[in-house]
Amino acid sequence: MREGDLHQELEERIASELRQRRRMVEALEAEPALRGRMSEVVQVLCAALRGGGKLLLAGNGGSSAEAQHMAAEYVGRFLADRPGLPAIALTTDSSILTALGNDYGFETVFSRQVETLGKPGDVLMVYSTSGRSPNILKAVGRAKALGMTVIGFTGEGGQTLAEACDLCLVAPTQHTPHIQELHLMMGHMICGLVEACLFAGAEEG
């Protein structure tokens, strides 16, 4: 293929990808129930953090990176120059993860940490594009038993996780990369709204 032809083909494919993402955002905007659940998530997080609770986050693979990313936004800052908010990604300590995986099985790597670090009034936020990850579902069960509130992020077909959580945000697609992109978008919006609610008047940095 000639260089000029390749350049044109790539531009067309990029334009197509951008159109797909525009339709994804339009699909989110068209779901008032999802917007309502996002509002509830913001209120739950604000109440927990005001009451001295903390946020625990977990996911596998790309969703593991999402958990770490969002923990950093809360502990550091998102937009506002404000005090840090207590958030712990359960995906980051390789010694804990490998010890638990080796000694008890990979399905325990998050639930054991929830059992150790969680308490009533805390929030567990979990990411699973399929909604069927055994270690995520086990962590959800442990958190509920401890009296924690559980917020989930999944995609279409993730009914198992959605039914196990107190609140679950379902990306309206079954395509894993698109689910992850929408999770990041929703997570950023929620973090920004939590900041605005807890630190009204804080200057953006």
TrEMBL record:
**What other comment is given for this protein?**
The reaction produces a racemic mixture of D-glycero-alpha-D-manno-heptose 7-phosphate and D-glycero-beta-D-manno-heptose 7-phosphate.
UniProt: Zn(2+) binding residues: 69, 73, 180, 188
Catalytic activity as recorded in UniProt? 2 D-sedoheptulose 7-phosphate = D-glycero-alpha-D-manno-heptose 7-phosphate + D-glycero-beta-D-manno-heptose 7-phosphate
Required cofactor(s):
Zn(2+)
Query: What are the UniProt keywords, alphabetically?
Result: Carbohydrate metabolism, Cytoplasm, Isomerase, Metal-binding, Zinc
Where does this protein act, in terms of pathway?
A: Carbohydrate biosynthesis; D-glycero-D-manno-heptose 7-phosphate biosynthesis; D-glycero-alpha-D-manno-heptose 7-phosphate and D-glycero-beta-D-manno-heptose 7-phosphate from sedoheptulose 7-phosphate: step 1/1
Q: Does the keyword 4Fe-4S apply?
A: no
Please state the gene responsible for encoding this protein. Answer: gmhA
| Homology family | Belongs to the SIS family. GmhA subfamily.
Q: Show where the SIS domain sits.
A: 45-204
How are cofactors bound according to the entry's free-text note?
Answer: Binds 1 zinc ion per subunit.
Q: How does it assemble?
A: Homotetramer.
The molecule here is called: Phosphoheptose isomerase
Which is an annotated Pfam family here? SIS_2
Q: What is the lineage of its organism?
A: Bacteria, Pseudomonadati, Pseudomonadota, Alphaproteobacteria, Hyphomicrobiales
Query: Which annotated residues bind substrate?
Result: 60-62, 73, 102-103, 128-130, 133, 180
| Annotated localization | Cytoplasm
